Amino acid sequence: MRLLRLSQIVWACLLACLCGMSPGCGTPDNLVIVNIGGLEPAITELRVTLTLDGAMARNSMPAQDNPDTTSFAVYKDMRRFGVEVPLGTRQLGISVEGLSTARVAVRTGSVTVDLSQRRDTTITLARQ
User: Fold this and answer.
1) What's the alpha-carbon Rg for the chain, to the nearest Å?
2) Between the CA of residue 16 and those of 24, 95, 105, what are the distances in Å?
3) β strands within the chain, DSSP E
4) Which pLDDT tens digit goes with each residue over 19-31?
């Protein structure tokens, strides 16, 4: 299985935010921008899981408070984040759960991105 490092995700998020503020900023070939719709005030965290060419991505650097290696969390600016994928990846599957403060799924959404066609996507979260 391919590894997806948390540090790469954090770097990708930072890069995506900086590029959004700077006109003409290009993004690396392996950065995928994910836009989230359907957020509501009850959602305080996004839990994101990824597949790379059909195989579950693993987070080799999980947070201390959540040792889950199959997902990562987005807390700030949940409307947009970036995911850095290994070069050569053809298809990226993204599943997102919008969690409440009790860590209960309020809304969910998913998408599969053909990386030969595009490097951005939108997921609209909906009630289960």
Assistant:
1) 14
2) 12, 19, 26
3) 3-4, 31-37, 45-52, 55-56, 58-59, 72-74, 80-84, 91-99, 105-114, 120-124, 126-127
4) 444 444 566 778 9
Domains of the chain by residue range: 3-127
| pTM of the complete model | 0.77
- pLDDT per residue as tens digits for the range 51-103: 999 999 987 766 666 667 889 999 989 999 999 999 999 999 999 999 999 99
| Burial class of 57 by CB neighbour count within 10 A (0 to 12, 13 to 18, 19+) | buried
Domain at 3-127, CATH class: mainly beta
Look at residue 20 and give its three-state secondary structure. helix
